[in-house]
Specification:
Distance between the termini: 28 Å
CATH class: Mainly Alpha
Largest sheet: none
Radius of gyration: 20 Å
Number of helices: 15
Number of strands: 0
Strand content: under 5%
CATH architecture: Orthogonal Bundle
């Protein structure tokens, strides 16, 4: 019943962003170094395209765009969960250090791969595991050091900022130990380049999103209850600390799997839930799906802009998102007296 009501509440925005995603999807398919018209795209999908068109669409553009959609939705859900946990609309897996922890683990994986020449470490299916370990480790440390007779949301956010800075410093140290070629690759990846633009990376990321997204949706009621003072969820029989640990791990798993393929993409987890809350209200039954759609749309749009802005050069999608997200963050700080969930 709650989900049915949430769908009726949010169906306008869900349908609106679905149409926007479809429009940007076909526009992105048609643009690039080799332009392909919409008519030629449809012809190719019917199996009557030229070999060049099939190569460009099926092997170069489609996997990259599918990855952008998956990462956008995953990071947006991760950010929505973190904002619910901290009761602060500035919370984001990038700001709280979860992205940095996952990135540190993946760069360490790159470093080991170059040192040992192990094909296992180069596998796209192995990188998300490394990223998950890094993200969960940072999430555990944030939770552990935030604990003081329970978790205070404000302390959780401040501790995340501290670990974000620590992981950033460790990343620089690790990069300095790499040879110049690996250093350059790691730097480009950390800016948020969708570097795994191939179907194996889609199959590596897809199971994580397919499994974790329904779990996040099932926790919508819990996240609604966590927005109230401690006494209300306790009075309703909710195991608050257990649920917080589970949600923090869920957010870390979503962010870590996305970072493994897309690199250090920031601001999507901040922008998408905040926009969803302003458009559709704070009810997590509708906030989560709307956030996922907005995140997918933002990253797909940023990827299209990045690949065409300075063509044939490719601007990392993380830089495009940062150019959009940083001014919006400043706007939030300047126009809000309170950056909590009620702001």
């Amino acid at each position: 019943m709650e989900w049915k009501q949430a769908f009726h509440q949010s169906k306008f925005w869900l349908l609106s962003f679905m149409l926007l995603i479809i429009a940007v999807f076909f526009l992105s398919l048609s643009t690039g170094i080799i332009p392909i018209s919409i008519k030629e795209i449809v012809t190719t999908f019917k199996g009557n395209g030229t070999p060049q068109q099939e190569l460009v669409l099926y092997q170069l553009r489609l996997p990259r765009m599918v990855i952008a959609l998956l990462i956008g939705a995953g990071i947006a859900l991760s950010g929505a969960i973190l904002q619910g946990l901290s009761r602060n609309s500035l919370a984001d897996p990038g700001i709280l250090g979860i992205n940095a922890g996952a990135g540190l683990a993946v760069v360490f994986c790159m470093f080991l791969f170059r040192q040992s020449n192990s094909s296992l470490l180069a596998s796209p299916f192995f990188l998300p595991v490394f990223a998950l370990i890094g993200a969960l480790t940072i999430a555990f440390l944030i939770y552990f050091f935030s604990w003081k007779n329970g978790i205070e949301p404000g302390r959780l956010l401040l501790m995340g900022l501290g670990f974000n800075a620590l992981c950033g410093a460790l990343l620089i140290i690790l990069q300095l130990k790499m040879d110049p070629k690996d250093f350059q690759q790691a730097t480009i990846w950390l800016t948020g380049s969708i570097w795994g633009a191939q179907w194996p990376y889609v199959w590596a990321l897809l199971p994580w999103i397919v499994i974790l997204t329904p779990i996040a949706f099932l926790k919508a009621r819990t996240m609604n209850l966590l927005q109230f003072s401690e006494t209300i969820p306790h009075g309703l029989g909710l195991k608050v600390e257990s649920e917080r640990r589970l949600l923090l791990c869920l957010s870390a798993a979503l962010a870590g799997s996305c970072v493994a393929v897309g690199g250090g993409i920031a601001f999507v987890g901040l922008l998408a839930p905040h926009l969803a809350r302003r458009l559709n209200g704070p009810n997590y039954f509708s906030l989560l799906p709307v956030s996922a759609f907005i995140g997918a749309f933002l990253l797909l749009l940023a990827d299209m802009i990045g690949k065409n802005l300075l063509s044939p050069a490719d601007v990392p999608v993380g830089i495009v998102i940062s150019v959009i997200g940083a001014p919006y963050l400043i706007y939030m700080l300047l126009t809000r007296k309170n950056v909590g969930m009620n702001s």
